């Protein structure tokens, strides 16, 4: 075979692969997993009898002296030794940290979680007997379910729980194993299915509303505070994110009598090249309000492009549509004029005690993006679960899982307290913050409403996931 | 009149993006002609070019045009260094092995781009943004005009350099026959390095063009460069002229399909315009496997 023919075949093969990826359009990035950690620590299955010396943990008085422990907990202190007399609880992190589509967010979520648990340790740890380590078993899974699954298997024997499992498809890939292993985990995402026990077996300890509820709340806010409107259109990534958001918008339109003009599926720019098709779909729809459930750069391009073409309506964006970097783009004026960002909680410069703590952790510096805030606030349910399990004298996986089923989480004001014994309709949070891009404020995002809840969101019959991806 | 407006709008948009595809494809072709290697690191060079432009504009306060030139220079240097360190030792090895090295170089530079760009999208500070040029009842995006003029201008200058300069002649001679060129006193190794330098500079410019008119650029956008593959298949792996013609054909075809996207969606599904370049590529492989302007192969039986 000649050289030229060979090259054409190679190039053609690569092109066909690119074609298939583009056609699938799921935003996943497939790569080889890292080699499993060969020097994993020996796990101590015996009950821990570590002396209780820390004296400032709130739950200490209630904690029994003998706490049963199991996998993921050692008598030896954590590698960083904040409290040298404490044992160590190891939590795993499966995130997107380098090459996947959510890496910019994943890196900051991890940073927020590391600082959250550092603060917990500095306050004496769990029941004054255990510090928490979230660095030893952090793995980059590239938002790839297969890698996520293999990395979960490699760290599972050494962890008590997952401090983060990023992305719905990767999390769904390990959920059956988590169930068998009794490993609870914190999500990094807001798919509505994670608020229903029959979907996640109570293993995923989510915080804040779902994308589906987010659409309700955003549209309620626009109707209440911005403008009267008759029609709504959604542009989003397919599946658990954009699909869930669109299902919420559709339900909102049905409840209010507004017209739902459709859902334009798009992908990251890496997949689709640019957002020209999405801009065209927005303009062609003629909608008054457009919901966006895409990435930040894609959102900015759609808003900037549509406004330049004469779009005069209102955009609302889901949580992941925001990144301060987009305010450096040419879309900034359009974002300030026509875009509202809906959030589960206030951005980093918010006013709650939780925000004050994270601001103190960064010593007044701003994080690179709000993933840091997400990581911090997402961590509260696991802290409460660990504290409750310790108070029950049972820090085994089974004990932790049982504790999380009944816990009431205090988010230090970042969110209303949440009772995890309540499922779906009763337990799902229905409050949002609403933010407007503003180049005059430090975070470039000005909060214009907090603890907002809308009539349609409140009345929504939330008895099942809005979408099953 | 409305039909004419739609036609012109599609044409300008298609030529704009097609010119950028052509620019990317020329980068592939120059290295292929000189070294017989398809450079799979081109996407990473592209995204690093956008990064360095943003760096020079925002951190060093360099005006945008100078920042673009500086970024092209930086990427030319990185390209030449890459060739010297990673590819030169592969001289004499089968081209497929060298291509695998470029895959490795891609991942190294791609990871580097993640480290350099960090958590947030970057913008190059380009002046066109979402602005429009209004001609009577017609509106055109400035970015499409800019892409067309700058990309085709850069390709033209590259072609001129290869055709008219002594170094260009040496590069072409190297591309035709390395051993004979060596015998004639051409420093073949230097020609290899130069081809990588030119390719790196063009990739940097393509990165700026791709990121123009967007809401920000992230490292994953490197994969947009894969659009050049159908272009080089259609145009011919070893033809710069073919890259230009094929880039424009594919750009216009894609823009045309995009303009009918909503009409086609109920029948063939969402975003069918994305597969148009690859359909054209498949057609080209079936009808004219060496491309529109590629060198036909003669095989001795």
Could you describe the 3D structure shown?
The complex is a heterodimer of chains A (469) and B (301). Chain A is α/β, with parallel strands linked by helices and 469 residues long. Chain A has 17 helices and 14 strands. Chain A has helices spanning 3-24, 103-122, 145-155, 168-181, 197-200, 211-226, 242-256, 269-272, 276-285, 296-308, 332-338, 353-361, 371-378, 380-391, 397-406, 424-427, 455-459; strands at residues 73-74, 87-95, 130-140, 161-166, 185-188, 231-236, 259-265, 289-293, 314-317, 339-343, 408-409, 418-419, 432-437, 445-452. In chain A, helix 14 (380-391) packs across helix 15. Chain A is globular, with a radius of gyration of 23 Å. Chain A starts with a helix and ends in a 10-residue tail after the last helix. Chain B has 301 residues and is mainly alpha-helical. Chain B has a single domain (2-287), classed as ABC transporter involved in vitamin B12 uptake, BtuC. The model of chain B has no long low-confidence stretch (mean pLDDT 92). Chains A and B meet through helix 1, helix 2, helix 8, helix 9 and helix 10 of A and helix 1, helix 4, helix 9 and helix 12 of B.
